[in-house]
């Protein structure tokens, strides 16, 4: 017969053979036993955790001739035909290769026909998140109210891609990653059945490399058995899976303890030459320091160790590191792992991480240091300064004012990154040429322009408002200063905004950013300096001198200022009786 891989031969044929997923098995078995099964199920979770296997077992249990029962008998003709894949009433549908609406319509047309030789017609749709939107819409009504003889089981590794209308019509079961102990137990059964002698350390290496997936573990086990023959060794498992042995980890930790950069970098280079994946190496180093932290803080939980064993050398090694140092190592490696995702020079990042850990000046448990005299002096100086500040506050003197009188304020170079500097000159130039027609053009096109920009850019500009505009520039007011600062420091947003304005208005405007508080101050100062607060009876401004557009007609920002300063009671009375009949007397 043709050889079959372990993960196909040892696919679970009953709930009892499934590893892990106790919450899923118990719920489905109770529903089967009490005839409370639903019409639609959603199985979601990482790859290789048993979603499709559970769906097939559930289909057999539904149609078993000895039902209702918690387990399929696997002996009746119906169970045997489903196991062989020859039962026409259990339809497996791969949505990854049949994602179009036409394939779903074929299912919808046939679902109303009664099953030919079983109690239920079961549709198992694998990788359901690959269906198109039109396919989901076509499936929606049938999924909500299928015939009484139909059951849908949807399986996916990415449930967040499914429409909420689909998820709400299904009973959802989240499959969890299988623990290393459960994977090792299953592999022990497989190697015993296959007549292969295996070391426990070799199975642990494979379980660690599988990352919670039983199918990945059995595939790697199959590969290691083919490589090593009748005896499965840890060395063979390390070589085939690309993992790292305990000895290498121990040598690397010793190099970090002794601050030996050459030894650490040589070990790294040796691992890469042997074909170890650099990204996998960073992940294994994080797990290794996690194991040391576990040995350091909770030595009784040795069964949770993943990469190292609970022998004396690693226990003593963990005692040589302080927990703060191990936390820092994990943090350095985690940041390195994130940065490596966007680079083609992953080795450089891991080398830099090792050097950072070597030069990390953290506490060392094996040695005691005398108190630093410089640190004591700094503490005394700070305490004395705090005492003086408290005395000044008690006397009613503000420390900031006293410091300002004693010495001129120093410019803080980093403050520009924390607060926004208002471009008063640019705003005044816009206000000098501001007209109502210019601001009206921008405001009419503003909403449509926001829809054409990137979603992140339009979200940042959501609480903004164009408040004044000239022929070549306009002022954009932000409700929050932090949003104004972020927008001004984002060159991508500035160019995108200019392009969108050019496409909508036909003009390449210069945009001046200002927070709301800053805009109110600059506007008020401009009105005061240019004597724009006095209006004639006909609504035009009485302005001396040539202020360009500001003198020709009342700018939009002036109109807003007048509306804001108006008394609401007077405004309401003018609306009711007219301005000619209203006289306002100041008390």
TrEMBL record:
Residues 398-420 are annotated as: Disordered. Residues 37-179 form the AAA+ ATPase domain. It holds the Pfam family DNAX_ATPase_lid. It catalyses: DNA(n) + a 2'-deoxyribonucleoside 5'-triphosphate = DNA(n+1) + diphosphate. InterPro entries: AAA+_ATPase (IPR003593), ClpA/B (IPR001270), DNA_pol3_clamp-load_cplx_C (IPR008921), DNA_pol_III_gamma-3 (IPR022754), DNA_pol_III_sug/sutau_N (IPR012763), DNA_Rep/Repair_Clamp_Loader (IPR050238), HLD_clamp_pol_III_gamma_tau (IPR045085), P-loop_NTPase (IPR027417). GO terms for molecular function: DNA-directed DNA polymerase activity. Its EC number is 2.7.7.7. Keywords: ATP-binding, DNA replication, DNA-directed DNA polymerase, Metal-binding, Nucleotide-binding, Nucleotidyltransferase, Transferase, Zinc. Belongs to the DnaX/STICHEL family. This is DNA-directed DNA polymerase. It comes from Sporosarcina oncorhynchi. The lineage of its organism: Bacteria, Bacillati, Bacillota, Bacilli, Bacillales.
């Amino acid at each position: 017969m043709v050889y079959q891989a372990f993960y196909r031969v040892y696919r679970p044929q009953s709930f009892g053979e499934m590893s892990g997923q106790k919450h899923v098995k118990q719920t489905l078995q109770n529903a089967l036993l009490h005839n409370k099964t639903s019409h639609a199920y959603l199985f979601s979770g990482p790859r290789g955790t048993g979603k499709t296997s559970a769906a097939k077992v559930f289909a057999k249990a539904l149609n078993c001739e000895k039902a209702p029962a918690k387990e399929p008998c696997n002996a009746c003709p119906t169970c045997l035909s489903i196991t062989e894949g020859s039962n026409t009433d259990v339809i497996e549908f791969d949505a990854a290769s049949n994602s179009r609406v036409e394939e779903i319509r074929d299912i919808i047309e046939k679902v109303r026909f009664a099953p030919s030789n079983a109690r239920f017609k079961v549709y198992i749709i694998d990788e359901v998140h690959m269906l198109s939107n039109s396919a989901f819409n076509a499936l929606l009504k049938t999924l909500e109210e299928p015939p009484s003889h139909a059951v849908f089981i949807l399986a996916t590794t990415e449930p967040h891609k499914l429409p909420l209308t689909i998820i709400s019509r299904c009973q959802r079961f989240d499959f969890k990653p299988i623990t290393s102990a459960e994977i090792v137990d299953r592999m022990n059964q497989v190697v015993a059945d296959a007549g292969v002698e295996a070391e426990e350390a070799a199975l642990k290496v494979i379980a660690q490399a599988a990352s919670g997936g039983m199918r990945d573990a059995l595939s790697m086990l199959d590969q290691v058995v083919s490589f090593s023959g009748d005896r499965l060794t840890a060395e063979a498992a390390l070589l085939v899976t690309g993992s790292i042995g305990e000895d290498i980890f121990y040598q690397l930790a010793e190099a970090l303890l002794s601050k030996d950069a050459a030894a650490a970098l040589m070990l790294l280079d040796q691992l890469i030459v042997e074909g170890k994946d650099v990204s996998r190496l960073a992940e294994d180093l994080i797990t290794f320091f996690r194991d040391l932290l576990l040995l350091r803080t909770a030595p009784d939980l040795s069964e949770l160790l993943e990469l190292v064993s609970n022998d004396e050398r690693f226990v003593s090694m963990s005692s040589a590191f302080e927990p703060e140092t191990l936390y820092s190592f994990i943090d350095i490696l985690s940041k390195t792992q994130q940065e490596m995702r966007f680079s083609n020079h992953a080795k450089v990042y891991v080398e830099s991480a090792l050097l950072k850990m070597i030069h990390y000046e953290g506490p060392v448990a094996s040695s005691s240091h005398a108190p630093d005299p410089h640190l004591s002096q700094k503490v005394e100086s700070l305490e004395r300064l705090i005492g003086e500040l408290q005395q000044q506050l008690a006397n009613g003197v503000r420390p900031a004012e006293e410091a300002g009188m004693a010495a001129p304020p120093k410019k803080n170079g980093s403050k520009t990154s924390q607060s926004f500097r208002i471009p008063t000159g640019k705003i005044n130039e816009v206000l000098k040429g501001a007209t109502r027609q210019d601001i009206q053009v921008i405001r009419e096109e503003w909403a449509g322009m926001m829809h054409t920009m990137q979603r992140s850019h339009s979200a940042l500009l959501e609480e903004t408002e164009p408040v004044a505009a000239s022929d070549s520039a306009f002022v954009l007011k932000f409700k929050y200063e932090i949003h104004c600062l972020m927008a001004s420091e984002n060159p991508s947003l500035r160019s995108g905004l200019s392009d969108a304005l050019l496409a909508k208005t036909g003009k390449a405007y210069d945009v001046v950013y200002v927070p709301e508080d800053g805009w109110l101050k600059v506007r008020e100062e401009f009105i005061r300096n240019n004597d724009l607060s006095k209006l004639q009876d006909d609504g035009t401004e009485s302005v001396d001198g040539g202020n360009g557009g500001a003198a020709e007609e009342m700018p939009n920002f002036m109109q807003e200022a007048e509306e804001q300063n108006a008394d609401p009671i007077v405004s309401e009375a003018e609306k009711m009786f007219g301005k000619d009949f209203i006289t306002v007397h100041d008390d």
